[in-house]
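Question (not urgent): is this output format expected?
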Amino acid sequence: MVQMKLNELDPALTAEEERELEAAEQRQPAFDADSPEMTPEMLAQFKRMNREARNKQTVSLRLSPKTLSKAKAYGKGYTAFLSRLLDEAINDEALVRKCI
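Got this back:
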């Protein structure tokens, strides 16, 4: 099921579009043969997690808009790219000393 938060919506929505979204929020999903309800086993097949990812922890970092824009320019998977970049950078003692 797709879920969105109100702050993710286009601020230029018309009043009618907002009413339609509110009505849709109240409806239950309609499952059928072409679109069955997903079981936990079915959902598990969509999780692509390699061995390296299982050994990582999630953290929050503050990035400048310019840095984030540059990272996103590398396309899909930019967070994995940033993770690998940080792994490499933290092992470069000269770079670490420069950034402290």
